[in-house]
Design a protein that fits this description.
The structure is a homodimer. Chain A has about 210 residues and is an alpha+beta fold. Chain A has one domain: Glutaredoxin, CATH 3.40.30.10. Chain A has a four-stranded mixed sheet with strand order 2-1-3-4, sandwiched between helices. The longest helix of chain A is centred in the first third of the chain and has 17 residues. The relative contact order of chain A is 0.18. At the A-B interface, helix 4 and strand 4 of A face helix 4 and strand 4 of B.
Chain lengths: ~210, ~210
């Protein structure tokens, strides 16, 4: 049997465009015949290296205003529930991403990740407190308390830090980012289809 | 006869994504049945208000590296010549934009604008000196020397400044930007198709 091409999907729970990508990547990848590896990480440390203390959408109000409108439009186009803005933006995603890193390559990683995004951007709920993450895990039939505790262990915290450094060293500077096997990098939800095509070997003619 | 919907296309000669948009907006708009009004302007003053002294693609190297690759990919997809990087990026676009503002709504505005973009991003030529702009105008059968001189008149410089302030007051923060009749703003070459659909009244269901 032929080996399926693989695309890595790097996402950040606080990121609106990561939310849009997370809600459509499975169907799009299935159609393209591409396997997706979900790679949760934190963009905050990368932003901090660029001198940003918060989201660029907060730093630049005109850009932020259009981002919210654009995400509303895209959510409607994708048939997602009306976008809700969490009271705090960006939300502190540390508890959630630690759990996701702990769940790397587990069968619950994808449903957990989509549930976190839905809580944040479709329901406007806080995902910042460990208790909120426990509740999401419990709702998926997992042992939330135990999982959040395990995710807070030193070895797992280190795993998250290593992921962030891996992102940086592979050229990632924002989320979502798609990385093909050959290192080709695609930034942004609007590049998902191109990234999937690239992964299958379908590349623009004449490109060096 | 029905009135054609109108979309404004705000572009900056130094902007790579404005180049991509300029080379495809006519065909896409014709197919959608939308009239396009080309609105040349400068993004520099808007960037300066955000505290940027140069292009964000220079300020943030990882972002810049991917931008060049992304534009190479997009140029190949659109069937444009291989991208060349002008020796200086961003180029000083003041002479060219003054001429474009002077040519607002003239039948030569679009061919002139496309010729400036082609010189810069397909041929890697400088567009910064008035002489370069004269040469482009001459090549289109216009009187380059006379046009560049007329574009440097005080009234035309004021017209450019007013355009930049209009951009700012309408929420523009980057280029290219598409503005529909009702003020709906779409930022980026990748939003052209959505902007055209919006202009024709085709809007995502469920959007407020």
């Amino acid at each position: 049997m032929a080996r399926q091409p693989i695309l890595e999907f790097w996402y950040e729970f606080a990121s609106t465009y990561s939310y849009l990508a997370a809600m459509r990547v499975e169907a799009a990848a299935a159609e393209a015949g591409v396997a997706v590896r979900w790679r949760p990480f934190l963009v905050g440390p990368l932003f901090a290296s660029q001198g940003w203390t918060t989201s660029p959408f907060n730093l630049y109000p005109a850009k932020g205003k259009n981002m919210w409108r654009d995400v509303e439009r895209e959510a409607a186009r994708l048939g997602l529930p009306p976008l809700t803005r969490p009271a705090q933006f960006p939300q502190n995603s540390l508890s959630a991403v630690r759990v996701a890193v702990y769940g790397q390559d587990q069968d619950w990683l994808v449903p957990f990740s989509k549930a976190v995004f839905t809580a944040s951007f479709a329901e406007g709920r806080s995902i910042a407190e460990p208790a909120a993450v426990v509740e999401i895990l419990d709702s998926l039939g997992l042992d939330g308390t135990q999982t959040v505790r395990a995710a807070a262990a030193e070895a797992n915290k280190t795993k998250l830090r290593v992921s962030v450094e891996e992102a940086r060293s592979r050229g990632i500077y924002g989320a979502p980012t798609f990385l093909a096997d050959d290192g080709e990098l695609f930034w942004g939800n609007d590049r998902l289809d191109l990234a999937l095509a690239w992964a299958t070997g379908d590349r623009p003619k004449g490109l060096r």
